[in-house]
UniProtKB/TrEMBL annotation:
GO terms for cellular component: cytoplasm. Keywords: Aminoacyl-tRNA synthetase, ATP-binding, Ligase, Nucleotide-binding, Protein biosynthesis. The keyword Translocase does not apply. Signal peptide: none annotated. The keyword Cytoplasm does not apply. InterPro entries: aa-tRNA-synth_Ic, Rossmann-like_a/b/a_fold, Tyr-tRNA-ligase, Tyr-tRNA-ligase_arc/euk-type, Tyr-tRNA_synthase. It catalyses: tRNA(Tyr) + L-tyrosine + ATP = L-tyrosyl-tRNA(Tyr) + AMP + diphosphate + H(+). One of its GO terms (biological process) is tyrosyl-tRNA aminoacylation. Belongs to the class-I aminoacyl-tRNA synthetase family. It comes from the Bacteria. This is tyrosine--tRNA ligase. Its EC number is 6.1.1.1. Pfam families: tRNA-synt_1b.
Amino acid sequence: MTNEEKLHLITMNLEETLTVDELKQLIESGKPLKHYIGYEVSGKVHLGAVSAMLKIRDLQMAGVETNVFIADWHTWLNKKLDGTLETAKRMAVEYFQEALKAAGLVAGADPEKINFILGSDLYHNNPDYWAEVMRVAKATTVSRMMRTTAIMGRREEEVTDTAMLIYPAMQAADIFVLGVNIAHAGMDQRKVHVVARDAAEELGREKPITIHFSLLQGLLKPDIWPLPTDNREGAITAMKMSKSKPDSAVFIHDTPEEIRRKLNNAFAPEGETGFNPVLDWTKHLIFYDPDTTLTVKRPEKFGGDVTYTSYTDLENDYKKRELHPQDLKTAVADWLIEKLEPARKYFEDPKRKAALEEIEKLTAK
């Protein structure tokens, strides 16, 4: 594989790469490429993990070492599940790691080629790690660290204890101590990646390349509609899927009936292409690969079946109201039911099923 082909695989379908020139130089240097993405154990795994695993598949094809960091300490700091480190650690291994493997199967990545790293294992008896946390904290102002806590899914006024301020410094230190040169996340993690890049310069560390994918929009109608056009970041946050709002997301082990119900009830205004979750999923999941086709089945009186070979054509028809929202919802539901079959089968295993049931209890409102 040529360097140009590697560069294309790593950067395709991303929202942002910081920076493409730096990545090109890294590839051309011949250094081993080492990737990382980190996850809190905050609830059931949804399609956002499939989106991430699609990129992990690309990275594996490009010869990159792929690492998934399961952040049980960050889960504890962020007061998720029952608020204890013991539960976060157990669910990280029994449920979350297994769910991410299932998402990898769905996306076509090889779970056996992913190194799963538990936060507790990295931090245990590792004074060098905690020294790195201190170095990052010393290289970052309090006000900037406070702004960066948005990566936790919290507003600044929700940061109620000092431990939460340590969270971003730990996330940046994870990158340095793991020795990765490609940090991967959704756009919601951009701020902490920029902190890590800036701290790397000040501390004499290798500056990580950061690659960011688009957050999938949630299926529910936002509280404010139309969304403000002058605040893109706020609009994206308002529309993203949320584990705390189960009907905003499709989870990887949802039943076909649950998938159909959620898609049937999804917010998908006719002719609206700017903020439309069903179109968003069609673009970022179904048409992730360039050779994709999607057949929308409909009665002859409504134009008969139509097959799309590009997202652009589908979006144009939707905008012109030649493709009805309900027809698209049905097609997307059918695609997801088939695509997620490996994950449903994976969780038929009694131990995995029991872990799923436990995390459902832990996150039930």
